[in-house]
Amino acid sequence: MDDIILTATAGAVAILTLNRPHKLNAIDFATIERLHILLDGIEADDSVRAVVLTGAGDRAFSAGADIHEFSAKVFAGPETALREFVRRGQRLTSRLEAFPKPIIAAVNGLAFGGGCEVTEAVPLAVASERAQFAKSEIRLGFPPPYGGTQRLPRLIGRKRALAMLLTGDRIDAQAALACGLVNQVVPHAHLMDAALALAGRIAEQSPLAVAACLAATTRGLNLSIDEGLAVEAGQFARMAATADIREGITAFMEKRAPAFRGR
Q1: Beta bridge partners of 137
Q2: In what order do the strands lie in the sheet with 124-128?
Q3: Can you count the helices (H) and strands (E) in the chain?
Q4: Is there a catalytic annotation at residue 247?
Q5: pLDDT tens-place string over residues 3-45
Q6: Cα–Cα distance for residue pair 81/235, rounded to 1 Å
Q7: d(CA 56, CA 104)
Q8: E strand or H helix that includes residue 111
Q9: Window from 54-63, 68-77, 112-121 with minimum mean pLDDT
Q10: Which of 47, 100, 148, 245 is deepest in the core (most CB within 10 A)?
Q11: Mapping DSSP to helix (H, G, I), strand (E, B) and coil, where does residue 72 land?
């Protein structure tokens, strides 16, 4: 079980590596459960301020959900399919999206189906020049079940999203960058360095302010502007009582680097 996802740290950054390269890092139920356990531990660990999620090997970030495993749940009927397959996947992508510490996908190869949905759900993504993305579920006879029909249009626009959703056609890393699915494309050999550099810059900030930015943005996306502004104001109000906001403002006025402590 421990080998399904490899774990490492680089300073204040946790590195999680999907480790099923023989299956193109397909996401099975054990991987989902292990990710939840690891994320629970990372959330409680104040020494970790950011997460990089990647895939083992050079071929795939994740080729999607494990078809051989989930097919049995689908063939068992709608009730079982929803409970055992769809809701498990949706819980995972919702957890990734709402996580209070930034998760950066380091997309090292194929990100198809559920692998693309994970990329959509996390706040940030850096892609290798070799990366490719596809909503391949349509070729299996069903719509994306892990949030892809909802997050992808919000990220890249309705028409671009529907072109991917309805054809299953793949796009390359540069196309993903142009439409906003990823933040950056880098040479394959530099992928982890770029992802860790981005994570490191974020880790220098107040972890409370980072969490507030993540929460306000994620919650506000599906609200009216007035409701979103109220969420933003609430997050600011929480920060106003912290030592971090006083440290940040004082450090600016004293022309020195702030020393945020997350309190």
Answers
A1: none
A2: 5-10, 13-18, 50-55, 103-107, 124-128, 184-186
A3: 12, 10
A4: no
A5: 999 999 999 999 999 999 999 999 999 999 999 999 999 999 9
A6: 38
A7: 15
A8: strand 110-112
A9: 68-77
A10: 148
A11: helix
Are the CB atoms for 83 and 55 separated by under 8 Å? no
Per-residue pLDDT tens over the stretch 150-183 = 999 999 999 999 999 999 999 999 999 999 999 9
pLDDT digits (tens, 9 = 90+) for 223-235: 999 999 999 999 9
- Please report, for residues 42, 58, 68, 74, 131, the alpha-carbon distance to residue 29 in angstroms, rounded to integers and kept in the order given: 20, 23, 11, 14, 24
Active site residue 137: yes
The pLDDT value given to residue 2: 56
Q: Considering 69, 129, 137, 204, which one is annotated as catalytic? A: 137
Q: Kindly state the tokens that stand for 21.
A: 């390269």
Only one residue has tokens 């880098």, namely 186
Q: Under a CB-based contact definition with an 8 Å cutoff, are residues 100 and 46 in contact?
A: no
Q: pLDDT digits over 55-68, tens only?
A: 999 999 999 999 99
Q: What is the mean pLDDT of the chain?
A: 96
Which run of H or of E encompasses 116? helix 114-121
- H or E segment and range at residue 159: helix 158-167
CA dihedral in degrees (49, 207, 156, 223; nearest 10)? 140
DSSP conformation letters of 168-234? --EEEHHHHHHHTS-SEEE-GGGHHHHHHHHHHHHHTS-HHHHHHHHHHHHHHTTS-HHHHHHHHHH
Cβ–Cβ < 8 Å for 50, 14: yes
Q: Looking at 33, 84, 117, 227, which residue is catalytic?
A: 117
> 1 pLDDT exceeds 60?
no
